[in-house]
Amino acid sequence: MIELKDISLVMGGIHLFRNLSMSINPGDRVGLIGVNGSGKTTLLRVILGEVTPDRGSVMLPPGKKTGYLPQELVHLDNVSLGSFLKNAAGISHLENKLTHTEELLGRSVPESRESRSLLKKHAALLKEYTLREGYAFEARSRSILHGLGFSQDDYHKNLQDFSGGWQMKALLASLLLGPFEILLLDEPTNHLDTDSLEWLENYLGDYPNTLVVVSHDRRFLDRVTNRTAELAHGCLSLYRGNYSDYIKDRETSYIQKEKERQAVKKEFAKEQDFIDRFRYKASKAPQVQSRLKHLQKMHIDDPDPTENKVTISFPPCERSAHEVLFMQDVEKHYGNSLVFSGISVTLYRGEKVALVGSNGSGKSTFARLAAGREKPSKGMIRRGERVRAAFFSQ
């Protein structure tokens, strides 16, 4: 069990946590949610031991290994992807110990005390290697890499040849392959395309160990988690079930709190009215004093600011032609690298289009061409009359 007890933490003059407590049982898959800046990443680092709270205690199950995926890219070794995974999982270390023990055995005198000791050590190492699925490790790692979008050839490619996003996916793969009883994942879906995201949802949905994941992806949380922890105003509220269950429970809780709040307001107004009417009447002075004391003890909670609805209004614009964007036989390449070719599409006024595809398929390039930020290598792109394009890049 992971147990946080009365955790308080001030950072930059802000009370990030106030007597925060939480218990996570083995096998729980917890979705840690909250608005940006509420302290979700910091809370993961408190659990990990990277941040020490001002007060309170953190207890982790003894002997259990914890894996952590940060939001930001960390430095990875200058080795091949396959070697990185074997090193991270401890398989390379075991293989080196086995090889060294076998070399010592080859030089030892048969039936000697040294030989018997080495044989015993070799048997123990071999048992651990088998339990850690060392013989099947490459097949397992290739399967997980494939699920995350890597190609078969990437296994022997140097890590430094991958972009930052792909390196983060390599780090995620190492955590899924590692001997961890506890996984702390901070926004693991940031660098995943649709196919990889669905694969990870299926993989973590059957995860047998303890998982704490920070995500803003509702569908991902619904597919993966069985408990929800909401971090708000320095406090933590635990809910049974996934994100959808949490929404229902929170709505019920909010309705009940609002009823209680309105009842307190009504009582407050009643008491205030009595005080205002009889404040200067001597015969009612004891009752007025009593009501004043009662009023001072009453507290009306403000509505939860997280319940405020966001309202977005779009400024009016001139009505455009029916045909908004026309592409015919569009091709784009950078040097000798072809991104795509033969793209023909027509978009009409009012359409809302989701552009999907695997990482590296050219979605951002397509968006830049459509917005007029780049020119096609071949083909024609035409925008309709009175069409104004806005572009929000990655």
- Report the sheet with the most strands, covering strand number, pairing sense and barrel closure: 6 strands, mixed
SS strand fraction: 15-25%
Number of helical segments with 4 or more residues: 11
Count of distinct strands: 12
Query: Any idea what the shape is?
Result: flat
Question: What structural class do helix, strand and pairing data support?
Answer: alpha/beta
Residue runs with pLDDT of under 50 for 5 or more positions: none
Q: Which whole number gives the mean pLDDT?
A: 90
Rg from alpha-carbon coordinates: 30 Å
Indicate the percent of residues in helices. Answer: 25-40%
Terminal-residue CA separation: 39 Å
Write the H/E string, N to C: EEEHEEHHHHHEHEHEEHHEEHE
- Kindly report the spatial arrangement of strands forming the biggest sheet: 5-6-7-3-8-9
Task: Summarize this structure briefly.
The protein has helices spanning 40-48, 81-89, 91-107, 113-131, 137-147, 164-177, 194-205, 218-224, 243-278, 285-297, 363-370; strands at 2-11, 14-24, 29-33, 55-59, 66-69, 182-186, 210-214, 227-232, 235-240, 323-334, 337-348, 378-383. The chain has 394 residues and is of the alpha/beta class.
